[in-house]
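Fold tokens
===========
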Amino acid sequence: MRFLKYQALLVPLLLVAVGLIVVGCSGDEEPDELQSVTFMLDWTPNTNHAGIFVAKAKGWYEEAGLDVEIIEPGAGGVDQTVASGTAHFGISVAESVIPARQQGIPVISIAAVIEHNTSSLIALEEENIAEPGDLAGKTYGGWGGALETALISRLVECDGGDPSAVDYAIIGNVDYIVGMEQDDYDFVWIFDAWDGIRYTEVLGKKVSFISFIDHTDCIPDWYTPVIITSESLIEDDPKLVRSFMAATARGYRYAMENPQEAAQILLEAAPELDKALVEASATYLATRYTSDADKWGWQELKIWTAFESFLHEAGLTESAIDVEKAFTNNFLP
């Protein structure tokens, strides 16, 4: 599951016109007519999206008067598609929302899907990488993104290592474990809830983890993934946003309480997925979507502020943004 972490800072410079029309039904529809809503994923279906699929399968969107179509991302990217109104809502990441807003693309995060960052750097145990300083002299395999380099350099430096001693190999979308076993590179960035579980629980590989959340004294925590919408939709139809989020929050709360049923619902929607992986991942995320089910989706200003500062200080954004306009909790139930 690669999501958008490698593409997050590659937002095109072409700005999206704010005045484009938001897709949807007109205001004079019959009261019993469902309002069409398009929701764009950030990648192929996976357990990060479980609450969306649960809410749809349980009929909770329909109860809210919504006919929700779930679509996979196109070439234009989720942020641009949502900003233009081609999709009402979508899955994005903070490392994409911040540079998008810095470039004038009017998207807003309206919920954090997972309360804290759940990604890590991993390596085969035989590489003897236990702490960030051990990464010096090793080769990282990734997408060549500026955020990757900034995070790894900061981690190595904080642990007393030499960031310049880390080599980088651009490998793109490949099966990471194969390349590590072939010694093409030594460590990679993965999401614990998917590749982390696939490598350890499904494939039985012996790997070591450097979890980002364990090093927030050095690098910031940040929200990935998040649910986004556009400024124009919030302004034009706040009732729609509130109704959508009420049903969505209900779906994620259900996934927390019933992870195996949520896994089956996701598998029915995407039968090509690995059953063992989906079930294990659903169980893993059930306790990590949030520590308080009543506050699923809640976002904290201090987390957004610290991450925005990290991006700007690392030179990953050209100018600072007003972080308080990048997210809102106002539409959470």
Remarks:
- The chain has two domains: 35-116+223-325, 119-215.
- Residues 238-257 form the longest helix (20 residues).
- The first strand starts at residue 35 and ends at 40.
